[in-house]
């Protein structure tokens, strides 16, 4: 035992002048997708690079001075350093594409709010899919030079590290980040002082410090309450990601939503579009409305003005997954806030109202206060339109404004570097500029099979090295023996990676059904017993610390992996993070995903796998329903939702076993003399060619630009011009419509022919009681299509009626339609009337519709 009090002294290495710009590289998350930059750091002192978790800033704080000096005198290192700096400089200086600069003016800016951002494992402010998607969105925005900023929270502890013990119990380990060694810096004002804002919580004011992280061309502003001037309790608001109780969650969301708007304002940043990425950030609309009402604008006009340039993306397909707070909490936290909006408590609570629940729902708030809403895959868009359907009660669900933009992943981040040389050679030096160009990627077919396969084997072998390292660490910590470890790792041999390897890694949540593979152990045993054709399953993933059933799944996987017949054939790796993800999605042969339809909103790990030539074997849910083409992987068709879960599990697992036994294993092992299966390689090439250009974030952000950001900017100018004249007009008009609507009726007038010859015209007349509205305030419409026996009818054509005279006796307005059917056969038509105004963003945004 040493005596005396130990004091700490940080000795920071002096960076040689020639290497000064290493600090710039360490402070720009460009390194999170630029592999040569990361390799450069590792060249300087490899063991340290591993010890600091591949964190460049932490690395530069403790790198050995001699190694730095040696690097600064090594011509090979300097050469590579110059090459990287020149790539870095030209990335930042690259002119904005003509296409994009024609679309945006210099006043335009998109502000993207999200509770988590996943850029790289060295910056732990993410937990999983949502955060990594947000990170990829920012990275693609940077690649395109989109005028864009992100707003999030700076978590002191971020998400937890996971260890899994011998019994399969998950242990959560939280470690404090040293903000000093994260790629962030405080935002300073003109006087060199920290930029701070505050929010009011019950009985106190909480100070918030603003930090920034640079992601290529894009800034991310991160909010932090861990400040001396805050109470201990308030300092902890930004400690944990998705930790704490409901109050902490509420406080985090207030800091993010309300604090985020204040921070941007304080910095003089004026976005023209505001993107709410998942309901956690939805309070931002309240603060924006408050700012307008403070300027004397009435609430209804302020609501229209704010909604019209707000984009909301929902990520959860179950109502229970939508964030909500009870009214008691809402009153407690917003008692002094909602009066500033000049509305009553009831009007305030109505913004988050969903019938049948006593709570204030953040999804409902986001929908009420945005005019662009989307889910994250085609199926999820439809499901969201259905579960949020009551917000537009009089509409068919398919007509409501919720659309979809399918997720994508950032190619430079997730495509393994081993591909780049081969792509350079066979696709052309500028291959990386063609991320979303479909015909371009057909060229992967020109890569010789053996060369293609050798990349696949290299990737598997590199993954196996990481698996060995991780399993070893886990095994000895759990007091296992060397002999036992050898048995566990018998198929994980980087020198001989020719073992069919199937990966399953994602959050352990029950709907993801990690254990579907184990429905029938007898069958699985049979499939896996052939020693000539070994199969290795690799599992990884964290369960939320409060998710007890999720943690139980980890125990089950662990228990089965220890059965003698599965030992060494099923592995459960701990601490799934972006690093392990990058290795696994590139290294395995097959990526397995077995969610319970339709609960996988999109799923993104399968996209990462697909672009690396890994074959997906998944339930047709989320993105895979759009990606699967019959030849680029395998599909498990979900059993109807009407059946009980037990039956769905049973039947879908049978499909899974059949596919493994009849298709996956035989195809993999149908190897030629050169040691690979030509059929497999063909599928694998097809996976890249068909899926990479579609499911990457360049395509995704492009869609957000065209479908939401640009239209939102257009509407923003229309509504905000002349001191909000447009917003006021729409708000008044909506009030007028809503008042009159209950009295609006529609009925048929006269007889319509029931049968006509093709090309003969038909005349239909309806009488509409407008209850004081003007004829131009509504549109009367006929929808007509082929009559169908099935519940779902085919596409319908739409015809608009024209307003005729008013019927003096009844007071009704007559609307007439004369049209010539373009189809033959038995047709079915419906007639409806709905409010109409040319300034609306979505023609049905009021949700009002009267059906005949
Ligand atoms: C991509 C990714 C996810 C999300 O995967 P899903 O398939 O959407 O569940 C989660 N965690 C990490 C570390 C990832 O890289």
UniProtKB/TrEMBL annotation:
Catalysed reaction, written as an equation: [(1->4)-alpha-D-glucosyl](n) + phosphate = [(1->4)-alpha-D-glucosyl](n-1) + alpha-D-glucose 1-phosphate
Signal peptide (UniProt feature, chain positions): none
Residues in DUF3417 domain copies: 15-122
Gene3D superfamilies tied to this protein: Glycogen Phosphorylase B
Pfam family, one: Phosphorylase
The protein's Enzyme Commission number: 2.4.1.1
GO BP terms, alphabetized: carbohydrate metabolic process
Keywords: Allosteric enzyme, Carbohydrate metabolism, Glycosyltransferase, Pyridoxal phosphate, Transferase
GO molecular function: glycogen phosphorylase activity; pyridoxal phosphate binding
Enzyme class: transferase
Superkingdom of origin organism: Bacteria
Modified-residue entries (N6-(pyridoxal phosphate)lysine), positions: 608
Required co-factors: pyridoxal 5'-phosphate
Keyword rRNA-binding assigned: no
Task of the protein: Phosphorylase is an important allosteric enzyme in carbohydrate metabolism. Enzymes from different sources differ in their regulatory mechanisms and in their natural substrates. However, all known phosphorylases share catalytic and structural properties.
PANTHER family: GLYCOGEN PHOSPHORYLASE (PTHR42655)
Record-stated family: Belongs to the glycogen phosphorylase family.
Protein name, per record: glycogen phosphorylase
Gene name of the record: malP
């Amino acid at each position: 035992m040493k005596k005396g009090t130990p004091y700490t002294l940080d000795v920071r290495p002096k960076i040689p002048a020639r290497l000064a710009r290493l600090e710039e590289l360490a402070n720009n998350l460009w390194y999170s997708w630029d592999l040569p930059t990361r390799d450069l750091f590792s060249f300087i002192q490899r063991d340290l690079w591993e010890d600091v978790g591949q964190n460049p800033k932490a690395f530069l704080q403790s790198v050995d001075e001699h190694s730095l000096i040696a690097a600064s005198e090594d011509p090979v290192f300097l050469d590579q350093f110059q090459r990287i700096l020149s790539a870095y400089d030209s990335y930042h200086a690259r002119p904005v594409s003509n296409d994009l600069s024609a679309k945006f003016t210099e006043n335009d800016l998109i502000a993207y709010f999200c509770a988590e951002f996943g850029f790289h494992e060295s910056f732990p402010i993410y937990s999983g899919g949502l955060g990594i998607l947000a990170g990829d969105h920012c990275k693609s925005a940077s690649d395109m030079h989109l005028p864009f900023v992100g707003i999030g929270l700076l978590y002191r502890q971020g998400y937890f590290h996971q260890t899994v013990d011998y019994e399969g119990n998950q242990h959560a380990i939280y470690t404090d980040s040293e903000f000093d060694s994260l790629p962030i810096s405080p935002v300073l004002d003109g006087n060199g002082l920290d930029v701070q804002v505050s929010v009011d919580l019950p009985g106190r004011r909480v100070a918030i410090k603003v930090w920034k992280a640079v992601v290529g061309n894009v800034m991310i502003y991160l909010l932090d309450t861990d400040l001396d001037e805050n109470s201990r309790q308030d300092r902890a608001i930004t400690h944990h990601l998705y930790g704490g109780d409901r109050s902490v969650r509420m406080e985090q969301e207030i800091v993010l939503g309300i604090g985020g708007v204040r921070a941007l304002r304080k910095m003089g940043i004026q976005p023209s579009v505001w993107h709410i990425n998942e309901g956690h950030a939805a309070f931002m609309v309240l603060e924006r409305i408050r700012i307008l009402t403070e300027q004397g604008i009435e609430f209804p006009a302020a609501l229209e003005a704010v909604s019209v340039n707000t984009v909301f993306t929902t990520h959860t397909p179950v109502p229970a997954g939508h964030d909500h707070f009870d009214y008691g909490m809402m009153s407690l936290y917003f008692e002094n806030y909602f009066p500033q909006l000049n509305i009553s408590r009831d009007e305030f609570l109505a913004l988050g109202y969903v019938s049948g629940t006593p709570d204030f729902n953040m999804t409902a708030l986001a929908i009420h206060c945005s005019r662009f809403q989307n889910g994250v895959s085609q199926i999820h868009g439809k499901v969201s339109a259905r579960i949020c359907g009551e917000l537009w009660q009089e509409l068919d669900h398919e007509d409501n404004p919720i659309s979809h933009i399918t997720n994508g992943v950032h190619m430079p981040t997730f495509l393994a570097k081993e591909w780049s040389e081969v792509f350079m050679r066979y696709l052309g030096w500028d291959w990386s500029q063609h991320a979303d160009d479909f015909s371009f990627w057909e060229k992967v077919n020109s890569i010789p099979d053996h060369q293609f396969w050798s990349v696949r084997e290299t990737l598997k072998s590199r993954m196996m090295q990481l698996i060995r390292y991780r399993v070893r660490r886990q095994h000895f910590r759990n007091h296992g023996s060397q002999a036992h470890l050898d048995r566990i790792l018998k198929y994980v041999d980087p020198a001989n990676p020719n073992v069919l390897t199937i990966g399953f890694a994602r959050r352990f949540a029950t709907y993801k059904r990690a254990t579907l593979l184990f429905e029938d152990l007898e069958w699985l045993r049979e499939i896996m017993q052939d020693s000539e054709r070994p199969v290795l399953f690799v599992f990884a993933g964290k369960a939320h610390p409060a998710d007890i059933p999720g943690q139980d799944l980890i125990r089950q996987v662990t228990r089965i992996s220890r059965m003698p017949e599965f030992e060494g054939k099923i592995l459960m790796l701990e601490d799934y993070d972006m690093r392990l993800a990058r290795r696994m999605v590139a290294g395995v042969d097959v990526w397995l995903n077995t969610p319970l339809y339709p609960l996988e909103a999109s799923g993104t790990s399968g996209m990462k796998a697909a672009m690396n030539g890994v074959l997906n074997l998944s339930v047709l849910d989320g993105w895979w329903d759009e990606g699967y083409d019959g030849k680029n992987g395998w599909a498990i068709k979900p059993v109807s939702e009407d059946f009980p879960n037990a039956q769905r599990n049973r039947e879908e697992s049978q499909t899974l076993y059949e596919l493994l036994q009849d298709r996956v294993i035989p195809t993999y092992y149908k190897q030629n003399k050169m040691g690979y299966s030509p059929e497999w390689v063909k599928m694998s090439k097809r996976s890249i060619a068909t899926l990479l250009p579609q499911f990457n974030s360049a395509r995704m952000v492009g869609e957000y630009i065209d479908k939401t950001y640009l239209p939102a900017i257009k509407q923003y100018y229309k509504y905000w011009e002349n001191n909000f004249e447009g917003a006021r007009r729409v708000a008044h008009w909506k009030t007028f419509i809503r008042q009159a609507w209950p009295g609006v009726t529609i009925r048929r007038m006269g007889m319509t022919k029931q049968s006509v010859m093709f090309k003969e015209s038909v005349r239909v007349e309806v009488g509409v009681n407008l209850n004081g509205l003007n004829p131009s305030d509504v549109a009367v419409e006929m929808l007509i299509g082929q009559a169908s026996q099935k519940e779902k009818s085919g596409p319908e054509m739409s015809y608009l009626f024209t307003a005729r005279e008013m019927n003096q006796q009844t007071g009704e307005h007559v609307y007439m339609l004369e049209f010539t059917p373009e189809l033959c056969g038995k047709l079915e038509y419906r007639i409806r009337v709905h409010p109409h105004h040319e300034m609306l963003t979505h023609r049905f945004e009021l949700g009002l519709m009267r059906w005949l």
